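Extended Data, panel c. Modelled sequence:
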Amino acid sequence: MIIDPGPVYSIVTPFDEEGAIAWRSLGKYVEAICAHAPSAVYVMAYNSRFAQLSVDEVIVLNRFVATEVRRIRPEIPVIAADPIACSTETSVHVAQCAAQDGASLLSALFSEKFYSTAQLVDHFGMLGQRAGIPLLIHQMPLISGLGGAQVNWPLDAVTAVMTLESVAAMKEDAKDDALTHSILELFGSTRSIILSGGGKRQFLRHREVGAKNWLNGVGVWHPPLASRFWAAVELGDQAVIDDVISNVEVPFFEGPVKRYGWHVACRAALSVMGWCQPWERLPMPTPGPEVLSDVGRVLREMTFQEEPLLPA
């Protein structure tokens, strides 16, 4: 497999007050997460704010992260990504650029309305044949072309796409334990499956059916947490596992994430921790002073191994 077991760190693209990408902040952040030996660094459609970026900016962002990781820790896989909404031809172009720029995988997202399994196979099959780079399927609920309802991938569609020769991995984000379980049983031993959307608790629930990777949550804004948690999992240190979940993950998700949503709460936490400024590009809202104050308070009240997680 391309991705070793353990945490996968996603990139949250920082902006300055004028809306430009804050490359210096991003470089410092990439260097910091590489210090904690992630299983992969993931430029990911939503966390990386692709809805606010042009196609050219997506290509440059993929290139920047791949270049920085290769400079710092060349053994760490880099997952680049295609735009959120584009033609298959545009995805091919972005994938070919990512391959030339040294990425290890191309995260491919299907955001068109869903009509059939054949449609998914046609899209990912053509992309895989021409990309020049292995694919990671960004699997999340689809929008039905027959009425517009949100639907999970049918298992036959998962199987048809995951058995394409070019497909090496999946970001599993259905938030449906039964589907997650089935995907791990079918492909967990032959493909890298990154669990997303349920935190470390979801990852632990699926360990016995082959879960090996999860997409970092609270470790986005405090990178050491993910590596400490993974070390505890490997050692069977239940006290540290419980400590991270009970004293950091649960308070963050039951507090700021529930009040403001993941993207706003995460940006606020990154700002409080000094990784970036709070600025966003519209239409993503920038967390205001009250949100920043509240998130800062929650973070300062957290403890890890009986010590404050942050300085007072």
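The CA atoms of residues 142 and 151 lie 5 Å apart. This feature is highlighted in the accompanying rendering.
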